[in-house]
Amino acid sequence: MSSQHFLFFLLLVYLYLAALLRILIEIPSCLGSLEDYTACNKQFKCGTITAGFPFWGDYRPESCGHPKLLLNCSGSNTTTEIMNIKYRILSLNSGSQTLRIAREDYLNGPCPSKVLSSTTLDDELFDYGPDYRNLSLHYGCSASSLLATAPGYLTCTIDGTNNRDAYAALDASTDILGLCFTIVVVPILAIVTSTNFSKVGEALRRGFDVKWKVDNEECNECMGSNGACGYDSSLNRTTCYCKDQSSGSRTCSPSGTCQ
Ligand SMILES: *[C@@H]1O[C@H](CO)[C@@H](O)[C@H](O)[C@H]1NC(C)=O
Ligand SMILES: *[C@@H]1O[C@H](CO)[C@@H](O)[C@H](O)[C@H]1NC(C)=O
Ligand SMILES: *[C@@H]1O[C@H](CO)[C@@H](O)[C@H](O)[C@H]1NC(C)=O
Ligand SMILES: *[C@@H]1O[C@H](CO)[C@@H](O)[C@H](O)[C@H]1NC(C)=O
Ligand SMILES: *[C@@H]1O[C@H](CO)[C@@H](O)[C@H](O)[C@H]1NC(C)=O
C-alpha cells in the first residue's frame, strides 16, 4: 500500500467513524412519532373546560401530559383525581396555571352519608391558591346542648355513629374537647365567615383554587418552535414533539430536521 493509498484509507475510516458518531448522537433525538405530535396538539375539551399541556385524557394520550394530571370527561363535567379524591373542575386558567376544583363527594352539601377523607394536595404538583380557608366538618358529636347554639351547627346522619350532631368551623382541624366521632377538612374559598355558616353548602360547591406547579417554560419554548408539548414519564420531564417526528430536544428546528 502506498502512502497515498494509506492516507485515503485513513480518510475513509475517519468519515465512516464520523458518520457513525453522528448517527449515534442524533438517532435518539430523532425517535418520535407523528402520532404524538398530532395527538398532543389537540386540546382536551369538555363542557366549558379546555386544557392542553400538562393535562391528558380523552383524545390526549398519556404521552401528552403529566401522569398524575388525567382529566376525565363525563357528560359535560370534567373531573380529576388528586390523592384518591375525585374533584369536579369548575374552571381552568392555563395563563395563571390555576384550577378551581370542588369535591365531587361534597357537591350535595356538608352531610355525606359516610365518613370521607380530608383533602390533601400532592405537594409535588399543586399549591393552594391565595384565597382559601380550611373548613372543618365535625361529625358525630356529643354534648349537643353545647353545640346547638354554635354558628356552624348541623345535623348529619353518617355511617359509624348514631350521634347526628355536627358542626362546621373554620381553621379548627382538631377536636379539642374530644366530642366528635370524626373531622373532615375541606378547603373552600374565603366566602364563609365564622359567624355565618349559612353558605357552607354553597362554599363546598364553589370549590377552591389550586395552582399546578409543572414548569411551563420548557413547554413555551417548544410551542414557540411549533412543537407540541408532552411528557416523558420514563425521564420524568417535559418533552417536545415535532412535525418532522423528532422528539427529545427542547425545541423543534425550523428546517424540520432533527437537532
Ligand atoms: C371517568 O369518569 C367516569 C364516571 O365518573 C368513570 O366511570 C370512569 O371510570 C372514569 N374514567 C377514568 C379514566 O378515570
Ligand atoms: C354534570 O353536572 C351537573 C351539574 O352539577 C349535573 O346535574 C349532572 O348530573 C352532571 N352530569 C354527569 C354526567 O355527571
Ligand atoms: C389547611 O390544611 C392543610 C392540611 O391540613 C394545611 O397544610 C394548610 O396549611 C391549612 N391552611 C390554612 C390556611 O390553615
Ligand atoms: C348569613 O348569610 C345569609 C346569606 O347571605 C343571609 O341571608 C343571612 O342574613 C346571614 N346571617 C347573618 C346572621 O349574618
Ligand atoms: C420528578 O421530577 C420532579 C422535579 O424534578 C421531582 O421532584 C420528582 O421527585 C421526580 N419524580 C420521580 C418519580 O422521579
Automatic annotation (TrEMBL):
GO molecular function, one term: protein serine/threonine kinase activity
Annotated PANTHER family: KINASE-LIKE PROTEIN, OS01G0690200 PROTEIN
Wall-associated receptor kinase C-terminal domain sequence ranges: 172-245
Protein name: non-specific serine/threonine protein kinase
Keyword Lipid biosynthesis on entry: no
Pfam families referenced in this protein's UniProt entry, alphabetically: GUB_WAK_bind (PF13947), WAK_assoc (PF14380)
Superkingdom of origin organism: Eukaryota
Membrane-crossing segments per the record: 6-25
Alphabetical list of InterPro entries matching this protein: WAK_assoc_C (IPR032872), WAK_GUB (IPR025287)
Organism: Quillaja saponaria (Soap bark tree)
Catalysed reaction, written as an equation: L-threonyl-[protein] + ATP = O-phospho-L-threonyl-[protein] + ADP + H(+); L-seryl-[protein] + ATP = O-phospho-L-seryl-[protein] + ADP + H(+)
UniProt keyword list: Glycoprotein, Kinase, Membrane, Receptor, Signal, Transferase, Transmembrane, Transmembrane helix
Subcellular location(s) of the protein: Membrane
EC top class, as a word: transferase
GO cellular component: membrane
Enzyme Commission code(s) on record: 2.7.11.1
Membrane topology reported for the UniProt record: Single-pass membrane protein
The keyword Transmembrane belongs to this UniProt entry's keyword annotation: yes
Wall-associated receptor kinase galacturonan-binding domain residues: 40-103
